[in-house]
């Protein structure tokens, strides 16, 4: 009963009668912190660079300014968290 109603609804609102699965949700925290690259990896900025910089050495501040890239172990997890990236 439910399946036939679902198919009828799909026929009314779309050109194909194929039942599509629910859309995957992107993890909102990952979306705010990571950006996808064309080679399949991800990049992010380092934390702790915006304030309290007086006590930090110049080399540490320069290192925090650089872009961080996802490692080989992080990339599959990030692809699951951001399926449309």
TrEMBL record:
UniProt-listed Pfam families: Ribosomal_L35p
InterPro entries tied to this protein: Ribosomal_bL35, Ribosomal_bL35-like, Ribosomal_bL35_sf
Domain of life: Eukaryota
Gene Ontology MF terms: structural constituent of ribosome
Record keywords: Ribonucleoprotein, Ribosomal protein
Biological process annotations from GO: translation
GO cellular component: large ribosomal subunit
Residue ranges the record marks as coiled coil: none
Signal sequence annotation: none
Record HAMAP family: Ribosomal_bL35 (MF_00514)
Family: Belongs to the bacterial ribosomal protein bL35 family.
Protein name according to UniProt: 50S ribosomal protein L35
Species name: Suillus placidus
Highest classification ranks of the organism: Eukaryota, Fungi, Dikarya, Basidiomycota, Agaricomycotina
